[in-house]
Fold:
Amino acid sequence: MAERIKGYAKYLKNYIFSFIVWMFLSLTVGVTGGIVGTLFSKSVSLVTHIRGELNWLILLLPLGGLLSVGLYKLCRVDGVGTNQIISAVRGKEKVSPLLTPAIFLASVITHLLGGSAGREGAALQLGGSVSSLLSKLLHLDEKTTRVLTMCGMSAVFSALFGTPLGACVFALEVIGTGTLFTAAIFPCIISSFAAFATATLLGVKAERFHIVNMPSVQFDTLWKVILIAALGALVSFIFVKSLHFSEKFMHKYLKNEFLRIFLGGSLIVLLTVLLRTTDYNGGGMDIIEHIFTKGEFHYEAFALKILFTVITVSAGYKGGEIVPSLFIGATFGAATASLLGLDVAFGAAIGMAALLCGVTNCTLATIIICTELFSAEGMIYFAIASVLSRLLSGNTGLYINNKLPLIHAGFDNSSKELSK
Structure:
Protein backbone atom coordinates (compact mmCIF):
# COMPACT_ATOMS: atom_id res chain seq x y z
CA MET A 1 0.00 0.00 0.00
CA ALA A 2 2.81 2.38 0.92
CA GLU A 3 4.59 1.62 -2.35
CA ARG A 4 1.42 2.35 -4.31
CA ILE A 5 0.98 5.70 -2.53
CA LYS A 6 4.61 6.57 -3.24
CA GLY A 7 4.04 5.68 -6.89
CA TYR A 8 0.98 7.93 -7.10
CA ALA A 9 2.88 10.73 -5.36
CA LYS A 10 5.76 10.43 -7.83
CA TYR A 11 3.33 10.43 -10.77
CA LEU A 12 1.55 13.51 -9.41
CA LYS A 13 4.87 15.30 -8.87
CA ASN A 14 5.98 14.57 -12.44
CA TYR A 15 2.58 15.61 -13.78
CA ILE A 16 2.63 18.95 -11.96
CA PHE A 17 6.23 19.56 -13.03
CA SER A 18 5.39 18.83 -16.69
CA PHE A 19 2.32 21.05 -16.49
CA ILE A 20 4.34 23.99 -15.13
CA VAL A 21 7.11 23.51 -17.71
CA TRP A 22 4.70 23.35 -20.64
CA MET A 23 2.74 26.34 -19.34
CA PHE A 24 5.98 28.32 -19.20
CA LEU A 25 7.12 27.21 -22.66
CA SER A 26 3.69 27.72 -24.25
CA LEU A 27 3.22 31.18 -22.75
CA THR A 28 6.76 32.18 -23.71
CA VAL A 29 6.21 31.11 -27.32
CA GLY A 30 2.74 32.69 -27.33
CA VAL A 31 3.84 36.09 -26.03
CA THR A 32 6.92 36.10 -28.27
CA GLY A 33 4.82 35.05 -31.25
CA GLY A 34 2.28 37.74 -30.40
CA ILE A 35 4.97 40.42 -30.38
CA VAL A 36 6.54 39.19 -33.63
CA GLY A 37 3.09 38.87 -35.22
CA THR A 38 2.19 42.39 -34.13
CA LEU A 39 5.38 43.84 -35.62
CA PHE A 40 4.77 41.97 -38.84
CA SER A 41 1.08 42.90 -39.02
CA LYS A 42 1.76 46.59 -38.43
CA SER A 43 4.64 46.55 -40.92
CA VAL A 44 2.48 44.99 -43.63
CA SER A 45 -0.37 47.43 -42.91
CA LEU A 46 2.04 50.38 -43.07
CA VAL A 47 3.67 49.41 -46.36
CA THR A 48 0.27 48.56 -47.87
CA HIS A 49 -0.92 52.05 -46.98
CA ILE A 50 2.23 53.58 -48.44
CA ARG A 51 1.74 51.62 -51.68
CA GLY A 52 -1.84 52.86 -51.85
CA GLU A 53 -0.60 56.43 -51.64
CA LEU A 54 2.32 55.93 -54.03
CA ASN A 55 1.10 53.70 -56.86
CA TRP A 56 4.36 54.14 -58.77
CA LEU A 57 6.07 51.84 -56.26
CA ILE A 58 4.73 48.90 -58.27
CA LEU A 59 7.35 49.74 -60.90
CA LEU A 60 10.06 48.76 -58.40
CA LEU A 61 8.68 45.23 -57.88
CA PRO A 62 11.31 43.54 -60.12
CA LEU A 63 14.11 45.26 -58.19
CA GLY A 64 12.46 44.32 -54.90
CA GLY A 65 12.47 40.72 -56.07
CA LEU A 66 16.22 40.84 -56.59
CA LEU A 67 16.60 42.21 -53.06
CA SER A 68 14.47 39.36 -51.66
CA VAL A 69 16.54 36.68 -53.34
CA GLY A 70 19.76 38.31 -52.15
CA LEU A 71 18.38 38.53 -48.60
CA TYR A 72 17.56 34.81 -48.52
CA LYS A 73 20.99 33.91 -49.83
CA LEU A 74 22.62 36.17 -47.24
CA CYS A 75 20.69 34.45 -44.45
CA ARG A 76 21.43 31.03 -45.98
CA VAL A 77 17.76 30.01 -46.04
CA ASP A 78 17.45 29.86 -49.81
CA GLY A 79 14.58 27.56 -50.81
CA VAL A 80 13.10 27.35 -47.30
CA GLY A 81 9.33 27.70 -47.11
CA THR A 82 6.22 26.42 -45.34
CA ASN A 83 6.79 22.87 -46.57
CA GLN A 84 10.13 22.84 -44.76
CA ILE A 85 8.45 24.02 -41.55
CA ILE A 86 6.01 21.12 -41.80
CA SER A 87 8.91 18.73 -42.38
CA ALA A 88 10.72 20.17 -39.36
CA VAL A 89 7.82 19.28 -37.08
CA ARG A 90 8.01 15.72 -38.38
CA GLY A 91 11.69 15.64 -37.51
CA LYS A 92 12.93 15.56 -41.11
CA GLU A 93 14.53 19.01 -41.28
CA LYS A 94 15.82 21.80 -39.06
CA VAL A 95 14.56 25.38 -39.01
CA SER A 96 17.15 28.13 -39.10
CA PRO A 97 16.57 31.11 -36.77
CA LEU A 98 17.76 33.32 -39.66
CA LEU A 99 14.49 32.51 -41.41
CA THR A 100 12.82 35.07 -39.11
CA PRO A 101 14.47 38.23 -40.52
CA ALA A 102 14.49 36.78 -44.05
CA ILE A 103 10.77 35.97 -44.33
CA PHE A 104 9.83 39.12 -42.37
CA LEU A 105 11.69 41.54 -44.63
CA ALA A 106 11.02 39.67 -47.88
CA SER A 107 7.26 39.58 -47.20
CA VAL A 108 7.24 43.29 -46.35
CA ILE A 109 9.03 43.98 -49.65
CA THR A 110 6.39 41.95 -51.53
CA HIS A 111 3.53 43.92 -49.97
CA LEU A 112 5.24 47.28 -50.34
CA LEU A 113 5.87 46.84 -54.06
CA GLY A 114 2.62 45.11 -55.02
CA GLY A 115 3.26 41.39 -55.33
CA SER A 116 0.10 39.29 -55.02
CA ALA A 117 0.75 37.39 -51.80
CA GLY A 118 -0.66 37.07 -48.32
CA ARG A 119 0.64 36.84 -44.78
CA GLU A 120 0.01 33.31 -43.54
CA GLY A 121 3.08 31.78 -45.18
CA ALA A 122 5.17 34.31 -43.31
CA ALA A 123 3.16 33.63 -40.13
CA LEU A 124 3.84 29.89 -40.19
CA GLN A 125 7.50 30.37 -41.05
CA LEU A 126 8.01 33.15 -38.51
CA GLY A 127 6.40 31.02 -35.82
CA GLY A 128 8.52 28.00 -36.68
CA SER A 129 11.72 30.01 -36.79
CA VAL A 130 11.08 31.85 -33.51
CA SER A 131 10.27 28.56 -31.73
CA SER A 132 13.43 27.00 -33.11
CA LEU A 133 15.48 29.88 -31.73
CA LEU A 134 13.87 29.56 -28.28
CA SER A 135 14.51 25.83 -28.29
CA LYS A 136 18.20 26.40 -29.00
CA LEU A 137 18.49 29.03 -26.28
CA LEU A 138 16.83 26.71 -23.75
CA HIS A 139 18.69 23.58 -25.00
CA LEU A 140 15.47 21.62 -25.46
CA ASP A 141 15.32 18.09 -26.89
CA GLU A 142 14.11 17.30 -30.41
CA LYS A 143 10.62 16.14 -29.44
CA THR A 144 9.95 19.27 -27.37
CA THR A 145 11.30 21.43 -30.19
CA ARG A 146 8.89 19.87 -32.67
CA VAL A 147 5.90 20.61 -30.41
CA LEU A 148 7.14 24.15 -29.79
CA THR A 149 7.39 24.68 -33.54
CA MET A 150 3.68 23.91 -33.80
CA CYS A 151 3.05 26.31 -30.91
CA GLY A 152 4.94 29.02 -32.77
CA MET A 153 2.93 28.41 -35.94
CA SER A 154 -0.30 28.68 -33.95
CA ALA A 155 0.87 31.80 -32.14
CA VAL A 156 1.88 34.01 -35.06
CA PHE A 157 -1.08 32.85 -37.19
CA SER A 158 -3.40 33.75 -34.30
CA ALA A 159 -1.75 37.15 -33.81
CA LEU A 160 -2.11 38.06 -37.48
CA PHE A 161 -5.66 36.89 -38.14
CA GLY A 162 -7.27 37.12 -34.71
CA THR A 163 -8.58 33.54 -34.90
CA PRO A 164 -6.95 31.83 -31.89
CA LEU A 165 -8.91 28.58 -31.90
CA GLY A 166 -8.77 28.25 -35.67
CA ALA A 167 -5.02 28.98 -35.66
CA CYS A 168 -4.43 26.24 -33.12
CA VAL A 169 -6.43 23.63 -35.03
CA PHE A 170 -4.89 24.72 -38.33
CA ALA A 171 -1.35 24.10 -37.05
CA LEU A 172 -2.36 20.70 -35.68
CA GLU A 173 -4.26 19.68 -38.81
CA VAL A 174 -1.81 20.92 -41.43
CA ILE A 175 0.96 18.99 -39.68
CA GLY A 176 -1.06 15.85 -38.96
CA THR A 177 -1.54 14.62 -42.55
CA GLY A 178 -5.22 13.87 -42.15
CA THR A 179 -5.05 13.43 -38.38
CA LEU A 180 -4.80 15.69 -35.35
CA PHE A 181 -1.65 15.54 -33.22
CA THR A 182 -3.68 15.60 -30.00
CA ALA A 183 -0.64 15.58 -27.70
CA ALA A 184 0.12 19.14 -28.81
CA ILE A 185 -3.39 20.56 -28.28
CA PHE A 186 -2.73 21.91 -24.78
CA PRO A 187 0.52 23.82 -25.53
CA CYS A 188 -0.72 25.01 -28.93
CA ILE A 189 -3.97 26.42 -27.60
CA ILE A 190 -2.14 28.18 -24.74
CA SER A 191 0.33 29.71 -27.21
CA SER A 192 -2.42 30.67 -29.63
CA PHE A 193 -4.55 32.50 -27.06
CA ALA A 194 -1.51 34.11 -25.44
CA ALA A 195 -0.44 35.46 -28.84
CA PHE A 196 -3.97 36.67 -29.58
CA ALA A 197 -4.15 38.48 -26.23
CA THR A 198 -0.70 40.01 -26.74
CA ALA A 199 -1.50 41.21 -30.24
CA THR A 200 -4.85 42.64 -29.10
CA LEU A 201 -3.15 44.56 -26.27
CA LEU A 202 -0.62 45.92 -28.75
CA GLY A 203 -3.36 47.22 -31.04
CA VAL A 204 -3.78 44.55 -33.71
CA LYS A 205 -7.40 44.38 -34.83
CA ALA A 206 -8.79 40.91 -35.41
CA GLU A 207 -10.21 40.19 -38.87
CA ARG A 208 -14.00 40.07 -38.69
CA PHE A 209 -16.66 40.21 -41.41
CA HIS A 210 -20.34 40.86 -40.78
CA ILE A 211 -23.07 39.12 -42.76
CA VAL A 212 -26.26 41.13 -42.37
CA ASN A 213 -28.60 38.65 -44.04
CA MET A 214 -27.52 35.27 -42.72
CA PRO A 215 -30.15 32.84 -44.08
CA SER A 216 -31.78 30.19 -41.94
CA VAL A 217 -31.22 26.52 -42.74
CA GLN A 218 -33.64 25.61 -45.53
CA PHE A 219 -33.52 23.52 -48.69
CA ASP A 220 -33.67 26.45 -51.12
CA THR A 221 -30.52 27.89 -49.58
CA LEU A 222 -28.85 24.55 -48.99
CA TRP A 223 -28.66 23.44 -52.63
CA LYS A 224 -27.23 26.83 -53.62
CA VAL A 225 -24.55 26.53 -50.92
CA ILE A 226 -23.71 23.04 -52.17
CA LEU A 227 -23.38 24.39 -55.74
CA ILE A 228 -21.10 27.27 -54.67
CA ALA A 229 -18.96 24.87 -52.61
CA ALA A 230 -18.70 22.35 -55.47
CA LEU A 231 -17.69 25.03 -57.96
CA GLY A 232 -15.38 26.53 -55.36
CA ALA A 233 -13.63 23.15 -55.03
CA LEU A 234 -13.06 23.21 -58.79
CA VAL A 235 -11.63 26.73 -58.59
CA SER A 236 -9.30 25.68 -55.74
CA PHE A 237 -8.16 22.70 -57.82
CA ILE A 238 -7.41 24.97 -60.79
CA PHE A 239 -5.58 27.46 -58.56
CA VAL A 240 -3.35 24.88 -56.87
CA LYS A 241 -2.60 22.99 -60.09
CA SER A 242 -1.80 26.24 -61.90
CA LEU A 243 0.52 27.27 -59.08
CA HIS A 244 2.40 23.96 -59.03
CA PHE A 245 2.64 23.83 -62.83
CA SER A 246 3.93 27.40 -62.99
CA GLU A 247 6.53 26.74 -60.28
CA LYS A 248 7.84 23.67 -62.11
CA PHE A 249 7.84 25.49 -65.45
CA MET A 250 9.73 28.50 -64.12
CA HIS A 251 12.26 26.40 -62.22
CA LYS A 252 12.88 24.30 -65.32
CA TYR A 253 13.28 27.08 -67.87
CA LEU A 254 14.44 29.93 -65.62
CA LYS A 255 16.97 28.27 -63.34
CA ASN A 256 18.60 31.52 -62.26
CA GLU A 257 16.64 32.78 -59.23
CA PHE A 258 17.49 36.43 -59.83
CA LEU A 259 16.33 36.27 -63.46
CA ARG A 260 13.20 34.31 -62.54
CA ILE A 261 11.99 36.76 -59.91
CA PHE A 262 12.92 39.80 -62.03
CA LEU A 263 10.90 38.56 -65.01
CA GLY A 264 7.99 37.52 -62.78
CA GLY A 265 7.91 40.95 -61.15
CA SER A 266 8.10 42.63 -64.55
CA LEU A 267 5.09 40.61 -65.74
CA ILE A 268 3.08 41.69 -62.67
CA VAL A 269 3.97 45.32 -63.41
CA LEU A 270 2.88 44.91 -67.04
CA LEU A 271 -0.46 43.33 -66.08
CA THR A 272 -1.12 46.06 -63.50
CA VAL A 273 -0.47 48.79 -66.07
CA LEU A 274 -2.63 47.09 -68.72
CA LEU A 275 -5.57 46.55 -66.33
CA ARG A 276 -5.21 50.07 -64.87
CA THR A 277 -6.01 48.86 -61.37
CA THR A 278 -4.10 47.78 -58.26
CA ASP A 279 -6.95 45.60 -56.98
CA TYR A 280 -4.92 42.45 -57.57
CA ASN A 281 -1.70 43.62 -55.96
CA GLY A 282 -0.96 42.76 -52.34
CA GLY A 283 -3.13 40.44 -50.29
CA GLY A 284 -6.43 42.06 -51.18
CA MET A 285 -8.13 42.19 -47.77
CA ASP A 286 -9.57 45.60 -48.68
CA ILE A 287 -11.35 44.05 -51.68
CA ILE A 288 -12.80 41.34 -49.44
CA GLU A 289 -14.01 43.98 -46.98
CA HIS A 290 -15.75 45.89 -49.78
CA ILE A 291 -17.83 42.82 -50.57
CA PHE A 292 -19.10 42.62 -46.99
CA THR A 293 -19.54 46.35 -46.39
CA LYS A 294 -20.64 47.60 -49.82
CA GLY A 295 -21.55 44.51 -51.80
CA GLU A 296 -19.03 45.48 -54.51
CA PHE A 297 -17.23 42.92 -56.68
CA HIS A 298 -16.23 42.16 -60.27
CA TYR A 299 -17.14 38.88 -61.94
CA GLU A 300 -13.66 38.39 -63.40
CA ALA A 301 -11.83 39.26 -60.15
CA PHE A 302 -11.26 35.68 -58.97
CA ALA A 303 -9.64 34.63 -62.27
CA LEU A 304 -7.36 37.67 -62.36
CA LYS A 305 -6.32 37.11 -58.73
CA ILE A 306 -5.39 33.53 -59.59
CA LEU A 307 -3.23 34.82 -62.44
CA PHE A 308 -1.49 37.48 -60.33
CA THR A 309 -0.88 35.10 -57.41
CA VAL A 310 0.42 32.25 -59.55
CA ILE A 311 2.96 34.56 -61.20
CA THR A 312 4.00 36.20 -57.93
CA VAL A 313 4.49 33.04 -55.88
CA SER A 314 6.04 30.87 -58.61
CA ALA A 315 8.48 33.66 -59.44
CA GLY A 316 9.77 33.50 -55.86
CA TYR A 317 8.16 36.41 -54.00
CA LYS A 318 7.49 35.73 -50.32
CA GLY A 319 4.27 36.00 -48.36
CA GLY A 320 1.71 33.25 -48.70
CA GLU A 321 -1.20 31.94 -50.70
CA ILE A 322 -4.03 31.72 -48.15
CA VAL A 323 -5.08 35.40 -48.15
CA PRO A 324 -5.16 35.39 -51.98
CA SER A 325 -7.19 32.18 -51.69
CA LEU A 326 -9.68 34.01 -49.46
CA PHE A 327 -9.80 36.82 -52.06
CA ILE A 328 -10.46 34.28 -54.82
CA GLY A 329 -13.11 32.52 -52.73
CA ALA A 330 -14.85 35.74 -51.69
CA THR A 331 -15.06 37.19 -55.20
CA PHE A 332 -16.04 33.87 -56.78
CA GLY A 333 -18.63 33.18 -54.08
CA ALA A 334 -20.08 36.68 -54.38
CA ALA A 335 -20.32 36.41 -58.18
CA THR A 336 -21.98 32.99 -58.04
CA ALA A 337 -24.35 34.03 -55.26
CA SER A 338 -25.53 37.05 -57.26
CA LEU A 339 -26.43 34.73 -60.15
CA LEU A 340 -28.30 32.38 -57.80
CA GLY A 341 -30.22 35.13 -56.01
CA LEU A 342 -28.35 34.74 -52.71
CA ASP A 343 -27.00 37.52 -50.52
CA VAL A 344 -23.61 38.53 -51.94
CA ALA A 345 -21.86 38.67 -48.54
CA PHE A 346 -23.18 35.24 -47.59
CA GLY A 347 -22.03 33.81 -50.91
CA ALA A 348 -18.59 35.35 -50.36
CA ALA A 349 -18.33 33.62 -46.97
CA ILE A 350 -19.24 30.25 -48.48
CA GLY A 351 -16.72 30.81 -51.27
CA MET A 352 -14.01 31.64 -48.73
CA ALA A 353 -14.75 28.44 -46.81
CA ALA A 354 -14.63 26.34 -49.99
CA LEU A 355 -11.35 27.84 -51.22
CA LEU A 356 -9.63 27.77 -47.82
CA CYS A 357 -10.41 24.11 -47.30
CA GLY A 358 -9.71 23.22 -50.92
CA VAL A 359 -6.19 24.65 -50.89
CA THR A 360 -5.16 23.61 -47.35
CA ASN A 361 -6.95 20.25 -46.90
CA CYS A 362 -7.78 21.36 -43.35
CA THR A 363 -11.51 20.75 -42.93
CA LEU A 364 -11.95 21.23 -39.18
CA ALA A 365 -9.67 24.28 -39.09
CA THR A 366 -11.62 25.88 -41.95
CA ILE A 367 -14.94 25.44 -40.15
CA ILE A 368 -13.55 27.00 -36.96
CA ILE A 369 -11.75 29.86 -38.74
CA CYS A 370 -14.90 30.76 -40.71
CA THR A 371 -16.95 30.64 -37.52
CA GLU A 372 -14.49 33.07 -35.90
CA LEU A 373 -14.35 35.34 -38.96
CA PHE A 374 -18.11 35.52 -39.46
CA SER A 375 -20.32 34.04 -36.72
CA ALA A 376 -21.46 30.74 -35.25
CA GLU A 377 -24.86 31.38 -36.84
CA GLY A 378 -23.60 30.13 -40.19
CA MET A 379 -21.53 27.21 -38.89
CA ILE A 380 -23.70 24.54 -40.52
CA TYR A 381 -23.22 26.16 -43.93
CA PHE A 382 -19.46 26.58 -43.40
CA ALA A 383 -19.24 22.91 -42.41
CA ILE A 384 -21.10 21.79 -45.53
CA ALA A 385 -18.96 23.98 -47.78
CA SER A 386 -15.71 22.83 -46.15
CA VAL A 387 -16.47 19.11 -46.19
CA LEU A 388 -17.76 19.17 -49.75
CA SER A 389 -14.79 21.19 -50.98
CA ARG A 390 -12.38 18.76 -49.30
CA LEU A 391 -14.11 15.82 -50.94
CA LEU A 392 -14.25 17.31 -54.42
CA SER A 393 -10.89 19.10 -54.57
CA GLY A 394 -9.10 15.75 -54.36
CA ASN A 395 -5.58 15.23 -53.06
CA THR A 396 -4.40 18.66 -54.15
CA GLY A 397 -3.09 21.31 -51.79
CA LEU A 398 -0.70 24.18 -51.37
CA TYR A 399 1.56 22.22 -49.04
CA ILE A 400 3.09 19.10 -50.54
CA ASN A 401 3.80 17.62 -47.12
CA ASN A 402 0.21 17.47 -45.89
CA LYS A 403 -1.39 15.44 -48.66
CA LEU A 404 -3.16 12.21 -47.87
CA PRO A 405 -5.70 10.21 -49.89
CA LEU A 406 -9.15 10.70 -48.43
CA ILE A 407 -10.03 7.02 -48.59
CA HIS A 408 -7.37 4.39 -48.12
CA ALA A 409 -7.19 0.79 -47.00
CA GLY A 410 -5.49 -0.01 -43.74
CA PHE A 411 -3.79 2.45 -41.46
CA ASP A 412 -0.85 4.82 -41.92
CA ASN A 413 1.87 5.74 -39.48
CA SER A 414 1.65 9.52 -39.86
CA SER A 415 0.31 10.17 -36.38
CA LYS A 416 2.76 7.68 -34.85
CA GLU A 417 5.65 9.42 -36.57
CA LEU A 418 4.85 12.63 -34.71
CA SER A 419 4.55 11.01 -31.33
CA LYS A 420 7.93 9.28 -31.38
Summary: The chain has a mean pLDDT of 87.
